[in-house]
């Protein structure tokens, strides 16, 4: 099974980082500007701005790798300019070296307190300038290379996590071929619901994008506990007896136990499985407390479980089974609306009303008659 989930935001860089080489010099003294340009131009791409105001205009169009900034300038001083830089999310990480004719411990402390990485005393010494600039260019290059490595490792970890979830979901699909595209559809329904939650920004339904992504990725595991249910019950081509239904209800606790074991093994790297556990253990809980396995009531049911309950029931009612015919989109929503406040979270159902039309499109596109392997998930 391959779910149509968005790729992680982190991407692997296409090529190794090159050495950084662009510098912006900000100084109202034209002589200093020309001198610094002459010193640096053989090894770096140098830009010059005669004032803080002109520097800000330049930075709207281009970002240098390093800024050399004069402290004492008419109009906007170097101190004012660096304060503006550090308040701007796009500019705050550009390293700044102060240029100053004022020597003293208090000036050093003020420069570093404002966020400068170094300072160079005037009159300018070419050897000092090249050494200080070279050092900070190297440090910035190493910093960016480390960030690139962290992004690459994060990307690899996310891909590994996704693969684990896919493998576990496929185990369920291979055990129960009658589910057809059920896992795929319920995953996509969950995606529609959580994206709508994020878009509406309801004061009592505040979830992070990470939590929303975990819900979507983990939705495919909601029935993983069915692998522990005997085939005689799981594959029975008829409605279950009361006793059999009591046994199959245990798939929620079986699944939670499986995930608990994985969490124990992975330790700090298992955060993505905690949401999966919420879904597995709580997607059959009812808003009025009459669900299973724990009889949770209202807000005690995790949001992930409440989302999955809507997705799972909608798909079950729409699907063909040996003991029942599939219902239409309108019939299904009619039943679910009647169970709002008993089975389903009433606020979440109200929020989801505006996107239920997307469920119809998903159900049509992933209709069980379209599978090509006799019923098993693709």
Primary descriptors:
single chain; 378 residues; alpha/beta; Rossmann fold; Hypothetical protein af1432; five-stranded parallel sheet; disordered C terminus
Give the CATH H-level superfamily of the largest domain: Hypothetical protein af1432
Low-confidence stretches: 1-17, 370-378
β-strand percent reads: 5-15%
CATH architecture of the largest domain: Orthogonal Bundle
Instruction: Give the termini separation.
Output: 4 Å
Cross-sheet strand order for the largest sheet? 2-1-3-4-5
The count of β-strands is 5
H/E order of the elements?
EHEHEHEHEHHHHHHHHHHH
- What class, by secondary structure content? alpha/beta
CATH class of the largest domain: Mainly Alpha
- Specify the helix fraction band: 40-55%
Please state the average pLDDT score. Answer: 86
Main sheet attributes: strand count, strand direction, barrel closure: 5 strands, parallel
């Amino acid at each position: 099974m391959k779910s149509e989930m968005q790729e992680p935001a982190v991407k692997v860089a296409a090529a190794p980082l090159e050495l950084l080489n662009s510098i912006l010099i900000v100084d109202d003294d034209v002589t200093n500007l020309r001198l610094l340009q002459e010193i640096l131009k053989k090894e770096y791409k140098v830009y010059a701005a005669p004032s803080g105001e002109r520097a800000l205009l330049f930075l709207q169009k281009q970002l240098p790798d390093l800024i050399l900034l004069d402290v004492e300038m008419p109009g906007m001083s170097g101190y004012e300019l660096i304060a503006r830089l550090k308040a701007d999310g796009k500019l705050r990480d550009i390293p700044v070296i102060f240029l100053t004719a004022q020597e003293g411990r208090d000036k050093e402390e003020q420069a570093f307190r404002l966020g400068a990485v170094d300072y160079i005393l005037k009159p300018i010494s070419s050897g000092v300038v090249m050494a200080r600039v070279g050092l900070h260019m190297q440090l910035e290059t190493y910093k960016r290379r480390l960030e690139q490595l962290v992004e690459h490792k994060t990307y690899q970890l996310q891909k590994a996590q996704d693969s684990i979830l896919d493998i576990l979901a496929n185990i369920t699909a291979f055990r129960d071929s009658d589910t057809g595209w059920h896992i795929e559809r319920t995953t996509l329904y969950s995606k529609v619901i959580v994206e709508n939650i994020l878009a509406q920004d309801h004061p009592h339904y505040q979830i992070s994008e990470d939590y929303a992504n975990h819900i979507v990725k983990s939705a495919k595991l909601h029935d993983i506990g069915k692998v522990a249910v005997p085939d005689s019950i799981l594959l029975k081509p008829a409605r279950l007896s009361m006793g059999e239904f009591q046994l199959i209800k245990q798939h929620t606790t079986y699944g939670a136990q499986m995930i608990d074991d994985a969490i124990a093994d992975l330790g700090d790297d298992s955060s993505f499985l905690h949401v999966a556990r919420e879904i597995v253990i709580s997607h059959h809980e009812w808003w009025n407390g009459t669900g299973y396995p724990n009889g949770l009531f209202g807000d005690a049911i995790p949001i992930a479980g409440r989302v999955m309950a809507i997705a799972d029931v909608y798909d079950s009612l729409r699907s063909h089974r040996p003991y029942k015919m599939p219902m239409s989109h309108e019939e299904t929503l009619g039943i679910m609306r009647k169970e709002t406040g008993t089975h389903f979270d009433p606020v979440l159902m109200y929020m989801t009303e505006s996107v239920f039309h997307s469920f119809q499109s998903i159900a049509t596109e992933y209709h069980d008659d379209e599978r090509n392997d006799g019923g098993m998930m693709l």
